[in-house]
Amino acid sequence: MTHSTAETVALGRAFARGLRGGDVVLLCGPMGAGKTYFAKGIVAELGGGEEDDVASPAYDIVHQFAGRETVFHYDLFRMQTLSDDDVAWLMESLLEHGVHVLEWGERIESALRRPRYKVTIAAGEGEDERVIVIEAVA
Ligand SMILES: Nc1ncnc2c1ncn2[C@@H]1O[C@H](COP(=O)(O)OP(=O)(O)OP(=O)(O)O)[C@@H](O)[C@H]1O
Ligand SMILES: [Mg+2]
After folding, report:
1. For position 59, what pLDDT does the model report?
2. Is the pLDDT of residue 85 over 70?
3. Residue 71 β-bridge partners
C-alpha cells in the first residue's frame, strides 16, 4: 500500500534494485492507477534519467532510457487489440538487452512466453492510497 506518488516512486525504486537485464515487468491497472509513477522509480533507480523524463508515452509506444541497465518503457494503451504484427513487433523488441517495463502490460500477457514480474495497482480507500501487488510469474 502506498499513500502518495512519492511512496509509489520509492517502491518502484526498491523493486528495481532486484532487476537484471532481460527482465520484463508488466504494469497493470486502470487509467490513473499510478503505473507511470512506478515506472519513474524504476528508471530513476537504474540511472536512466530523472523522474520528470518519464511520462506515459503519448505518441510513441516505447521510450528508451540509457542507464546502469537500459530501460525500455512501453505504453500499450493505444494498442487496444493487438494484431499479429503488433505482437511480433513487441516480441522482437523484448529481445533487446535491458529491462522492459510495460504499462497496460496485461494486454500482452497471454502472448508472452517468458517469466515476468506482474505489478498490479488498484485504488485504495483514501484518495491517494494505492494497493500494489508484485508477483513473479514463471
Ligand atoms: N499513491 C499514489 N501513487 C501513485 N499515484 C497517485 C497516488 N495517489 C494519487 N495518485 C495520482 O494518481 C495519478 C497516477 O497517474 P499515473 O500517470 O501514474 O497513472 P497511470 O496508471 O500511468 O495512468 P495511464 O494509464 O493513464 O497512463 C496521478 O494523478 C497521481 O497524482
Ligand atoms: Mg501511465
Report:
1. 62
2. yes
3. 65, 99
